Amino acid sequence: MNLKHIRAFITVAELGNVTKAAVRLRITQPALSRQIFSLEREVGLKIFERLNRRLILTSNGEEFLQYCRALATQADAVLASAQALGGGKIGALRIGAAPLTIARFFPSFLKRYERDHRQIRVHLVETSGARQVEMVENGEIHFAITIAFSKQLQLQSHPLPPVPLLVLSHPRYGLPVRRTTDLRRLDGLPLLLVGSDFAARATFEAACRLARLTPNVRFEGSTPHTLAALAEAGHGVAVVPGTLSFKSKHLRSSRLQLDGKPVELPLAVHWDRRRPLPQHAKDFPALFSAHVQTLVRKHDTGLSR
User: Fold this and answer.
1) Distance (Å, rounded) from C-alpha 69 to C-alpha 159?
2) Which of 9, 22, 31, 103 lies at 20 to 30 Å from 204 by C-alpha?
3) Has this prediction a pTM greater than 0.85?
């Protein structure tokens, strides 16, 4: 099976258009069409249907795509390992993370990592936790940095220091000026929360169930900075991840607790145990974990002193 044809198929499947795929692959459209036809003939499957000038994967094509992605990832790993053996550690490192995680931890990490790993190209993908896991399983990224999963058997994980949930409030709501706020103090207050697809929201709602508290949600947003701005203007009390960096003279900021225990996001670095990591990627989880631990130790994340 021709690996070039496999990569061509993956590109066409992702873009759904031969013309766009040909531009990305830098080959002519007829040549790309011949490669796809040759692959279909070789495997004996019809992998695409045409619909309004777009190519739609058949059910067989969707399943075949998963195998092709795994094969391409394996090929990349073999090549990277061979290159590492032949001339030192070189290659690419593809990492997925949420926007706030990237903003909080990666600027300083990349500065140090790229200094010590000059031949490694780091590619960051900004996306949600669920999408990160999907991309790891598809072989699109090496690592996902999101909450720890308990039942993802195909994932192997390296824990990171947990991220606290922060309570941001205007003085008008009368929350005490302390470093911690108990969840029950928020009962009945208008809350500004991230959407239900955020790990911070799932963690907050789980804590509310333990406290037998029904949150009074005034606003849901996709950007924690928006919640902080609304809280600063007195439109409610925001609950945001501790990775948020937000300075204000008017906001009271504290860590969320329940019965004296912190309410936190249990972060981890995840990768697919079914796929061998390239040699140059194997030290990333430990290096990143140590870096995060250093930042957590040095800085009281987002809290006013």
Assistant:
1) 27
2) 103
3) no
